[in-house]
Design goal:
Number of helices: 9
CATH class: Mainly Alpha
Number of strands: 0
Structural class: mainly alpha
CATH topology: MetI-like fold
Largest sheet: none
Number of domains: 1
Length: about 220
């Protein structure tokens, strides 16, 4: 049977949740992506702010970062396995990588879109470099940073599933691979439902609402 009945998928999903196997896998994946996403935000926002403000650094690394962002995270998996083995390190590495480049590019673009008149006005008012950075540049870049976070989460979530397919621990990707090995289409589709529902829930209930709220606060909506 290529495609099981929806009732079979629902039954597998309910049984997996009751037995705790799917919940254990879900929370393992959630823990990994929280660690990876935090790391990606730290590196991405810092790198984006630097590229947005330092002209020569942007000219030196801008094209390279765009090229790296174009490489799917799963392509890094063989290197990650060589460097870190089939463990947490490899999964965290490719998951973080899937979001870091996007955060750098979006944050840098947000800094570059700040009207020069705003910066000149702040400088005319006698603000220091630190005040200019913390009170003008960073706040003005927040909408672009949030958009980058929304995209970065999607990239990281997909990269996590790819990494877990070849991992030796628990996680939704590992359960997905187990279903493939057992030719259990109901289990495969049940995991796919969880993956898709989690992506929609995080985007809709967290990032989209936060983005809309910031856009209203910053006067970017009509």
């Amino acid at each position: 049977m290529l495609l099981p009945a929806p009732s079979d998928v629902l039954l597998t999903l309910v049984q997996g949740l009751k037995e705790g196997t799917l919940l254990l896998a879900f929370f393992s994946s959630l823990r990994r992506i929280l660690v990876s996403f935090t790391l990606a935000l730290t590196l991405g926002i810092t790198g984006g702010l630097m590229l947005g403000r330092i002209f020569w650094l942007d000219r030196l690394l801008g094209s390279l970062i765009i090229a790296l962002q174009s490489i799917p995270s799963v392509v890094w998996l063989p290197l990650a396995l060589l460097w870190f083995g089939m463990g947490e390190g490899a999964i965290i590495f490719i998951t973080s990588l899937g979001a870091t480049w996007t955060m750098i590019i979006n944050t840098g673009a947000g800094v570059k879109r700040i009207p020069p008149l705003i910066i000149k006005a702040a400088q005319t008012m006698g603000v220091s470099r630190l005040q200019l950075f913390t009170r003008v540049i960073v706040p003005a870049s927040v909408p672009a940073i949030l958009t980058g976070m929304r995209l970065a989460w999607a990239f990281a979530w997909r990269a996590l599933m790819a990494g877990e397919l070849l991992s030796s621990g628990t996680g939704l990707g590992q359960v997905l691979m187990m279903g493939r090995n057992l030719a259990d289409m109901s289990q495969i589709l049940a995991v796919m439902v969880i993956i898709g529902a989690t992506g929609v829930a995080v985007d809709g209930f967290i990032f989209r609402r936060l983005e809309e709220r910031v856009h209203r606060r910053w006067g970017l909506t009509g």
